[in-house]
Amino acid sequence: MPMRCKFCERSAFIKLHYPKMYLCEEHFTEYFERKVKRTIERYKMLRPDERVLVVVSGGKDSAVTAHVLKKLGYDIECLHINLGIGEYSEKSEEYAKRQCEALGVPLHVVRVKELLGKGIGEVRTRRPTCSYCGLTKRYIFNKFAYDNGFDAVATGHNLDDEASFIFSNLMHWNTQYLAKQGPVTPGEFNGKLVKKVKPLYELTEREVVAYALANGIEYHIEECPHAVGATTIEYKEILNEMEEKRPGTKMNFVKGYLRKKHLFEAELERAELRECRVCGMPSSGEVCSFCRFWRLEEPLELMIKQR
């Protein structure tokens, strides 16, 4: 016998494991959007009058983030960072363009290869590719948001991402990372570090995929070629097994971390921030890690060009 939606007699579209219930497409969409709204309110992420820059990769999480924020009435624009990873990046950019056209929101594209001379994976360095890719993306979206007067940057990190990140950093006792993680990173240093928010913080990857499917959102399903073998994927698999046996494990783990986060903050030695000698953005040293890695001698220009 087919399962029925908890709120109506239609066939169930999804079985939620935590909380345990069956929902049709319509009621699942309502549940998902209500949960995003509550997450934004609970963690005081955004005010209705703020300009929000949504960083879209072409994948499901950021596409769903943009879709729901627009539906909830926020003033959003999107930024896609083309990483210069061959065909993978070209496809990602195409998906990002289609997603933003469907939403009717402006999309700004920054291409790493044009901006810095080399794409991700083309730099000769001992540093792991994912490490300097993360550094590059964070710097670009923060500086773009600052240069163009956005009040907040929204990313598509979901509950699975957060749980695996916390788990990974606990395994290695990276207390500095654990002290800074969370649903909201407040703006600092005269606004040069723009506030960062994660509206999907309490929704699982499975729920995000289901929302995209229920709402006809197309997205790039390929994994980045540099992510193959990443330990975070292994940690996600371990947490998925635990969730299967005990639904609610991920949520309880993340909420437990938020309750105890102050223990890590107490250990964090706050480095005195200063302006980077090259770009003027916040730095713990004379030159920020981005300018140092890319050997820049003058700041990047990321102002939106008026059409």
UniProtKB/TrEMBL annotation:
Keyword Nucleus: no
GO CC, any one term: cytosolic tRNA wobble base thiouridylase complex
Keywords for this protein: 4Fe-4S, ATP-binding, Iron, Iron-sulfur, Magnesium, Metal-binding, Nucleotide-binding, Transferase, Zinc
Keyword ATP-binding: yes
Binding residues for Zn(2+) 1: 5, 8, 24, 27
Domain Rhodanese: 16-97
Top-level taxonomic group: Archaea
Pfam families: ATP_bind_3, TtuA_LIM_N
Gene3D superfamilies, A to Z: HUPs
GO MF term set: 4 iron, 4 sulfur cluster binding; ATP binding; metal ion binding; transferase activity; tRNA binding
GO terms of biological process kind: tRNA wobble position uridine thiolation
Binding site for Zn(2+) 2: 276, 279, 288, 291
Cofactor: Mg(2+); [4Fe-4S] cluster
Protein name: Rhodanese domain-containing protein
Organism: Thermococcus cleftensis (strain DSM 27260 / KACC 17922 / CL1)
